[in-house]
Structures are given as C-alpha cells and as structure tokens.
Amino acid sequence: MLSRLYKLKDEVEIFLQKQKQDKLYKAFREEDFQLSLAYLVDFFEAINNLKLKLQGRNTDIIAHSDVIRAFTEKIHLWKRKVQVGNFSLFSHLNELLSEKRNIEQYDVTKEVLSHLHSLASCTIFQMSQWRILFGHWCRVHLTLMWSCYGNHCKRKPSI
C-alpha cells in the first residue's frame, strides 16, 4: 500500500489540492514527510520479502532460524551504511535524497538509525527467545525419541 502511495504521490498532491485539504496537502508536501515515506516504502519491501521467505512449503525451523539470522545481519549492515551517510540499500530514499541539493538539512540519518537500532534490539531479543524455544523443543523431542527407542530395544544406543 505504501509503495502505491509513493508511486502516486504527485497525483495525491493534486487530489488534496483540488479537495481543498490544505493542511493535508501542506503536510504531504513537506520534505521530512516525503523522506519518511520513501524510507518506509523501502523498509516494508524488506519486511514483505522476509515474510515471503518464512512462508511456503518445505520450510522448517532451521531454515526459519537462518532467514531470521540473515535479516538481523542485514539490519546491522543497514545501520553501518547509514552511519556513514550511505543510503544505497534503500532505493526509494536514496533516489529522493539524490534529487535534493543539501542533504545535510534533513535529519533523516538520525531517524533511520534510531528506527534500525530499535528494530535490531527487538529482532535480537526475538531471535534469542526463538533459540530458547527451539532448544527446549529439541530436548523434549529427543527425550521422547530416546524413551520410545528404549522401550522397544534391549539396550539404548550409545552417543
């Protein structure tokens, strides 16, 4: 939905102007709003790609763990790039910034870094919780396998 809004931003401006929605028109045209919108378009594209990787057939907990770990590393890469003023990994935002003459006047770097930092903290926490649950699941599953195997055999296998 955001990508459609971004693609139609010129038409949205015309619509708001024709509808005499002066406050919305003025807010929509502000550079900070346009930059935030561009960033959100790029961010939600990445989230949608992540969601698609976590869906589908032939996926298991190990594959999901790898996908989440890779996404977490991607967030750290984004942070490193943005810290040095490189927005190339955010195509819409980068395009919009390249059109601007004085990038320093925009506070987009601080906002993007703040968002990525909070996202990384959240993702790492969820990943650690995921590992705890996965470890518990493995222990329970192996214990059940061990007890079933032990009940049907005379001796238990040595590990």
Q: What features would you describe in this structure?
A:
The structure is a single chain. The protein has helices spanning about 1-5, 10-20, 20-30, 30-55, 60-85, 90-100, 110-150. About 10% of the residues are buried. By secondary structure, the chain is mainly alpha-helical. It contains seven helices and no strands.
Structural classification: mainly alpha
Ranges where pLDDT stays below 50 over 5 or more residues in a row are 153-157
Task: Please give the alpha-carbon distance between the first and last residues.
Answer: 54 Å
Question: Which geometry do the CA atoms define?
Answer: globular
Q: Based on the structure, what is the oligomeric state of the protein chains?
A: single chain
What is the N-to-C order of secondary-structure elements (H for helix, E for strand)?
HHHHHHH
Rg to the nearest angstrom?
24 Å
Distinct helical segment count: 7
Q: How many beta-strand runs? A: 0
Mean pLDDT: 79
Beta-strand percentage?
Answer: under 5%
Share of helix, binned: over 70%
Largest β-sheet summary: none
Task: Map the helices and strands.
Layout: H1 2-7, H2 9-18, H3 22-29, H4 31-53, H5 61-83, H6 91-99, H7 108-152
